[in-house]
Write a structure and sequence with these properties.
This protein is α/β, with parallel strands linked by helices. Helices cover 54% and strands 11% of the residues. An 8-stranded parallel barrel has the order 1-2-7-8-9-10-11-12, surrounded by 8 helices.
Length: 479
């Protein structure tokens, strides 16, 4: 509206001197390079987030890719979802934008990161369907071990509270499996158990369960369901599996370029309905791109406002240790607190979110401690809270942690007193820096502000407000 009434020159000029100029490094690589150089002089690196989206006129032709390492899908129940192939073209174009972001990190801030949102590389509806399927498979694992564990009092547990610490022996597996699925013979059942039991210890752990059953194979599995329940309805059909492979090809293309240019990639966390699919994809990419390396290339993001998140961090670290790849993580408090609570209430589900800020902080610190305590890991602590930074530094000293394993990140335009102090003392400090065309970045910043509205009352932000207030009084009143 402002552009139409006042014209782009005036509006863009105001924005460059206010909101855009405060939070963003510029519109082009040429503009961001001097600002990144200034940060480097202060010992600070950049986490570049290209905030613009692909334009319709830039959309490439869709090209399906060959399936990798999965069997052909057969007989899947047809999904009720309809997928827009114009959206697929947008995702292909976004993949090229993310590749440019990787190149820009290499040119502007070589020690930095490229930040990527997977919802830009696949239809969010597909990610939601994938997530539902993965969550139902987790619920199935819990039911196989303990049929009475999945729901109590009619309130369903959220994904992050499903018990993944149970173990399945063959007798329990056999008894429970035949309750849910038709089996032709015990030999078939025994063969299925042995295929999942990759450690060959006559027990199935969750990590074996989750990595042995492929999304396309679930389609075949549900054809033997005795009842058409949530898992049956959640299975992806052949079209969705193809879209999933297209998305994986985009992700691999970005990460292959990042590997070639030696640029680290940070995968952002998103809302709960699609996060299980993101975690699934990132874990499989970490197994490939973080293997046989001195340092992790792919970092996943852990939102610690979710209950039980420290358990997930520990499971992922243990899996990396078993499989021999480098664990890399960004740990944050989280950005979707209000909306996630509202959704849980509407669905009559237990809230996945910690009840208080103090509980979230405890969860946040526990996850940091878990990572610091394991020697072959790297972490980016993303916080504007001074106490959390100081606590992390104290823990590093207690455990004699190599500072090169730990980074600290704050948004550009916020908590500068933390970032520059850390950089000045030789710690790995980073600014999270959006950039891109002003017409597209400003709406992006507004959306991010709405998503992160819950942090505005946090102690870190309140402290910064007080510091700004004192400085304004000093300049205006002289004291």
């Amino acid at each position: 509206m402002g552009v139409r009434i006042l014209g782009p020159t005036f509006v863009h000029g105001v924005l460059r001197r206010t909101m855009f100029g405060h939070f963003c490094a510029g519109e082009t690589v040429a503009e961001i390079q001097p600002r990144m150089a200034q940060l480097q002089e202060l010992g600070v690196g950049g986490i570049l987030d290209y905030a613009a989206e692909a334009k319709d006129g830039e959309l490439p032709e869709i090209e399906n890719v060959e399936k990798e390492a999965e069997e052909e899908t057969t007989g899947a129940p047809r999904s009720a979802r309809m997928y827009d192939y114009q959206g697929e073209r947008v995702c292909d174009a976004n993949a090229e934008i993310f590749k440019d972001a990787v190149r820009n990190v290499r040119e502007a801030t070589p020690d930095g990161f490229a930040a990527i949102k997977l919802s830009g590389l696949g239809d969010p509806r597909l990610l939601e369907r994938m997530s539902t399927c993965l969550v139902e498979m987790a619920r199935l694992f819990e039911k196989l071990a303990d049929p009475d564990s999945s729901a109590q009092g009619g309130v369903q547990k959220p994904n992050n509270l499903i018990n993944r610490d149970v173990k399945l022996d063959y007798d329990t597996f056999k008894k429970s499996w035949t309750r849910f699925f038709a089996v032709e013979s015990e030999e078939e059942l025994r063969a299925a158990f042995l295929e999942i039991d990759t450690l060959h210890d006559d027990l199935i752990m969750y990590h074996e369960w989750s990595t042995s059953l492929k999304l396309s194979e679930i389609n075949t599995l549900v054809r033997t369901c005795r009842h058409q329940g949530p898992l049956y309805r959640a299975a992806l059909d052949a079209e969705e599996v193809q879209l999933y492979h297209n998305m994986i090809a985009r992700v691999k293309g970005i990460l292959s370029l990042a590997q070639e240019l030696k640029v680290r990639v940070m995968i952002d966390a998103e809302w709960c309905d699609i996060q299980p699919a993101i975690d699934h994809i990132v874990l499989f990419q970490q197994r490939e791109f973080n293997a046989n390396a001195d340092h992790p290339l792919v970092f996943n993001t852990y939102q610690t406002y979710l209950k039980g998140m420290n358990g997930k961090v520990l499971r992922d670290i243990e899996q990396s240790e078993r499989e021999g790849w480098k664990f890399g993580a960004k740990v944050v408090r989280g950005a979707y607190m209000v909306s996630e609570r509202e959704k849980a209430e509407k669905r009559c589900m237990e809230s996945p979110i910690c009840e208080t800020y103090e509980e979230t902080s405890n969860n946040f610190h526990e996850a940091i401690d878990t990572i610091l305590d394991r020697p072959d890991t790297e972490i980016l602590v993303a916080t504007h809270n001074r106490e959390s930074v100081e606590r992390t530094l104290q823990k590093m000293a207690e455990l004699d942690v190599d500072p090169s394993r730990v980074g600290f990140g704050q948004l550009r335009g916020m908590a500068d007193h933390l970032t520059y102090t850390l950089g000045r003392h030789g710690y790995r400090a980073y600014k999270y820096v959006p950039y891109g065309p002003i017409d597209e970045v400003v709406p992006y910043l507004i959306r991010r502000t709405q998503e992160n509205s819950s942090i505005l009352g946090s102690p870190g932000v309140q402290e910064e407000r007080q510091m700004i207030g004192r400085e304004v009084r000093r300049r205006v009143l002289g004291f």
